[in-house]
Amino acid sequence: MKKILIIEDDLGISGSLKLYLENSGFEVILYSTGEKAIEFIKETLPDLIILDLNLPGKDGIEITKELRETDNTPIVMLTARTSELDKIRGLEIGADDYVAKPFSPRELLARINTIIRRISGLESASNLIKIFDLEVDLEKKIVTKNNEILPLTSNEFEILKKLIEEKGGVVSRETIMKDIIGYDNYVYDRTIDTHMKNLRKKIGSSDYITTIRGIGYRLNINLKN
Questions:
Q1: Which of 7, 108, 136, 204 is the most buried (most CB within 10 A)?
Q2: 98's torsion region: left (phi>0), alpha (psi -120 to 50) or beta?
Q3: Regarding beta strands 75-79 and 148-149, do their DSSP bridges make them parallel or antiparallel, or are they unpaired?
């Protein structure tokens, strides 16, 4: 049974969401503050985190930044803010997805299932791939550089994995949008831009991934198994 951690100070929202997700087959743990939730995460890794942006004390931005220093558990951010900049900011600091309040539990469940299917379905005949100074473990979903683990989000890892699979072929923005991020066409283009910007920054070189203007991206290096 997959374990979901909800960090939400509105007990009405967290309680109803807990019931809905439990009825959908998940184990659900609730916390109303970030400080206690972080302690729990360090001891018992959940499969996915649902995180409210506007928490008392440490807010969702601070919590995500702290978690991303050592942990790549998928994070779905809940926010009452509807501006594009707020959503982009959440993605930039490491959230995998965002849902604006008020939201449909059914929509949130669909997004959760998309993320979990993605991170659970990684299979490859060659699980360890070396790309210059990067080592990509497809089974463990870990990317290391100079023996240090890079804090990639699940979306960033999936984008890199897709680029590797294409072996220099172009991966379209539409493919990233629908197959990796799990959205429909209403997603802002800047969502993809943000993921690519973060991925390039974390792997330490903008030369590894080439942008094909108006089409998508391709890996700019030879793969070494």
A1: 7
A2: beta
A3: unpaired
pLDDT of 124 above 60: no
Domain boundary among the residues 120, 154, 181 is at 120
| Contact in structure between 14 and 32 (CB atoms under 8 Å) | yes
Please give the Cα distance from 18 to 67 (Å, whole number): 22
**pLDDT tier at 42, thresholds 50, 70, 90:** confident
205 vs 196: CA distance, rounded Å: 12
Band of residue 168 on the pLDDT scale cut at 50, 70, 90: confident
Task: Please say whether the beta carbons of 98 and 77 come within 8 A.
Answer: yes
CATH of the domain at 168: 1.10.10.10
CA 211 – CA 171 distance, rounded (Å)? 10
pLDDT digits (tens, 9 = 90+) for 210-219: 898 888 998 8
Residues 56, 134, single domain; the answer is: no
Q: How far apart are CA 46 and CA 225, in angstroms?
A: 32
Q: Provide the domain limits for residue 36.
A: 3-120
Amino acid letter at 191?
A: T
Residue showing tokens 């809905």: 20
**Is 79:53 a contact under the CB 8 Å cutoff?**
yes
